[in-house]
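Blinded run. Sample ID left blank on purpose so nobody reads anything into the name before looking at the predicted structure. Input follows.
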Amino acid sequence: MIVVKVKIREIFILLILSGLLDQVDLQTTQNINVLYINEVGNDIAAKAVDVAVNYVKKNPNLGLSVEVMAVEGNRSDSKGLLESLCSMYSRALVMNQPPHVILDTTITGIASETVKSVSSALGIPTVSGSFGQEGDLRQWRDINDKKKAYLLQVMPPADLIPEVIRGIIINQNITSAAILYDTYFVMDHKYKALLQNIPTRHVITAINVEQRAEQIEKLRNLDINNFFVLGTLSSIKSVLESAKKEYFERNFAWHAITQQRGDLTANLDNATVMYMRPVPDSKAKDRLGVMKTTYNLKQEPEITSAYYFDLALRTFLAVREMLQVGAWPMDIKYLNCDNYDGTNTPDHTIDLKSYFIGVSEPTTYGTFEFASRPGVPFNGYSYMKFDMDINAVSIRGGASVNTKNMGYWTAGLDATISIKNQEDMRNLTADVIYRIYTVVQPPFIIRDKESPKGYKGYCIDLIDEIANIVKFDYVIQEVEDGKFGNMDEKGEWNGIVRKLIDKQADIGLGSMSVMAERETVIDFTVPYYDLVGITIMMQLPSTPSSLFKFLTVLETNVWLCILAAYFFTSFLMWVFDRWSPYSYQNNREKYKDDDEKREFNIKECLWFCMTSLTPQGGGEAPKNLSGRLVAATWWLFGFIIIASYTANLAAFLTVSRLDTPVESLDDLAKQYKILYAPLNGSSAMTYFQRMADIEGKFYEIWKDMSLNDSLTPVERSKLAVWDYPVSDKYTKMWQAMQEAGLPNSLEEAVGRVRNSTTATGFAFLGDATDIRYLVLTNCDLQIVGEEFSRKPYAIAVQQGSPLKDQFNNAILMLLNKRQLEKLKEKWWKNDDVQSTCEKPEDQSDGISIQNIGGVFIVIFVGIGMACVTLIFEYWWYKYRKNPKIIDVSEAPMTQVTGLKHHDNMAGGKFGDMGGLIKFDGKGTTNNTNLRTRNQQFAGSTFKARF
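Blinded prediction complete.
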């Protein structure tokens, strides 16, 4: 117990001896009894109260005499503290020195609650410096208005400094934070209130002195990259040095917050730390210096020491003022602990709060801020106001090489920080970089070395749009096994799901289907893509093209038969014309007046039969009836052949284009020639495997029911024992898939499809979006059948991750803006890759040049043959059968003009030589008076026509 008695008579003597009597304003000295309660370990508060008492003693002008009765208790020993408190209080009452006020510097916990409980129950005016806001002061939570006037609490600086974290997080929009503190800060009551109503995932924990490195590693595994360290400079130094070197890269941020006034140091190679420390009010610096030098107020941290000093001094002065003006009740009733029964609390009217607020004594560090707004309680909202500097400290090689002031923070509840340069402040905050794992699957994810992240596609554009809204950066890499994630028989996951479970990935991106079993271990956002089903991809049936495809309409033996009929009919027509007495060549006189005279020799018969097969017709028919019957038969044969050929050519070309062996999943299941399988580890594989398992379970259930001996014959008949009612389609299909072998990659699946044929080959079952894109960008592939087992696509995140809600909001915003529709247009309709591929719907239904081009070749071949024949005819006529030309100019004209018509016909055509040669009736030339033209016109320019 500390007893201080300042007597007015002794003051007068001292002042007279010092020659200062004339400067003293004589006033009455007020004796104050103070019951001071502190907790073990809070030495800085005890020292500050001693300094305050000493200050009162050395400043007689205050008119104050303070007698302090001290009690110290353990924070966790409520019973011991209560006994000491009640014992001291009872002793004071027995000595007729009841305490005017209780000065409580207990920090928190049971000790603080014990003091508040006793003071409220016994009605003792109390000024408390304990931690906590209104809701944390449980023993004073429901006190009446009279008690609110004399039960006062003012928050200490250490309880207010953590509020700067709230200001930084709001200013920098930080989404994850780890808050570590030492014994100089009490954060038990801050777990819920500090970051309340802020969408920041955070952990508040005490510094583990023995396992700091492991503690930081565990926090990092929780995907936290913003660290706040509250404590002494030595505690902060130890934590920084315990962190790995890579934890000081740009995707991490460190914030050091202390009550001390020294510089930050740490043995780090290259780090930049945001350093915050309090600074005294400019008006209080001189007074603080006097207190430290004259009154020995040197306990650290100085802000806490100054707070307890000002709190104690203000309490003393408030009671003194009340005693001087008569505001303190004279007939106050005191009740000791033993007489309290829970209902007999003294009813005091003591307005300590008003006089406490009205103290005009200057403060030593910062001014007191008391709650004065209507509806705002005094307790939990009153504190010492001060500023904290915000600095960026660069540490290189274990020394601070640069300190830059970024701004300041004025202490207060929900106070914001003031920043000089917001851009510099952003550089101190950890870049939000999420780890994305994906599976390459165009057009969702496409490798592209020229893209900023090394990838492009629908999902890359989507995540970039989300990043612009949520404000984050990301690194992306492919999952090693190339799987989205499936669970094996042991319950183990692979692929992207495994990465999310192990906290190695923050986001799973790609064409990932939402599945019930996946949602048990990870979370999905709202779907970003419509319901997508499974469909079938096969090789597009290619119509075999041939320039002579028109010849393949009829088989080779048919063509040979037609050719044989042609030659046989031609020969038969020549024979009939040769031997028939009614033919032209055997009855010329009869047909001499006809306009058309045709002798059907072998050449003419071949020509007639050939031209009869064309629309041009065969020309003049034979004169004899037998020949005409042969011609009519040939015409009928030709008509049937031409009609059949024309009809079959059109049908043949049409049917070859429509040849598709499979048109649905059922068709695929019913046949055995075409193999089929989904991608190994894909959602399509899971679907067929699960459906096969369900069919197997149904069969086992049905079998157990059918073989149940307890069933009556009627009940057994209802189970259709001999006719299993459930289809085993998927069981057979799954077995066929396993026998065919599941491809491990999309490239392998496409390769197997391309290497297949129309009749026997391979069909791939996969997501409709992937197959649709492959069909659009590859001319040799096609989609078969309708989609089935439709599921949406969504972004996967860790279970319980706050990214789920953030991404949900972003995706819904993009849906409202129709941005997702634009992305679909970009990657499925306006993609440059598909422009090089001819679409099936653009193909014409007509006969292509590849199939009918042989006809043109026939024309060119015929023309070529005609040209060769012309050359041969010219050569044959000129060099093999060219007759000698003689001059008949000296022959009598009567011999030339006297030729009869039949002489000309018998001996040859007279007009062949222009009437220059005379033939006798026997077909021999008359050489009388004739000589050769070459001799007559030797050297002339006349030439023969051929």
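Unblinding after everyone has recorded impressions. The longest strand covers residues 781-793.
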